[in-house]
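INFO  loader      accepted 1 record
INFO  loader      residues=193
INFO  predictor   begin
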Amino acid sequence: MGLGNPGPRYRLTRHNAGFWFLDRWAGLLGLSFRKPWFQPFEFCETRRGSNRLVLVKPLTFVNRSGLILERVLGKFDAAPGDLLVVFDQMDLPPGRLRMKPHGSSAGHNGLKSIEAALGNQDYHRLALGVGRPTRSDEVVDHVLGGLSAEEAAATQTLLDWAVPLAHSLWSDRWEVLIHAFNQRDRHPPSDPR
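INFO  predictor   done
INFO  writer      dumping tokens
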């Protein structure tokens, strides 16, 4: 599940990093998102052998992302342990990511909403860096603002290698994907080392 805000007004804002990731993944697969009748989310799906991949974009706005979880998990017969949440992270610079099997919300309201819905913090999360604002009182403007040209280039480079990597490993164990992402992010392809 990728976190973001619906509508063209928010499409290029930092808070939509989760949507960017899923849009790129769906594009790689040649899939289009569709909205089920009377449901506040969009999804697309594919299979690899007996494994099913469902990409979900909540339409409830980031801070209320958890409101759709019960419906999504029920519709796709999934458990919280099957869930990977992709979201924007201010503690990482643009072009960097971090994947973890569990942990705190670190103040992210979308993750707080998910944790409230699940009643725990035991779900996988993939944080995409969007950097911090220069002043702490500019947080809302920062996450609802667009990337600079340099940040956008770093983010595109990240998506260019991270989405195909996620796709190649999604049917393996979560630990394999976590290790691959975190190892690769230490020395991303744009790194001259």
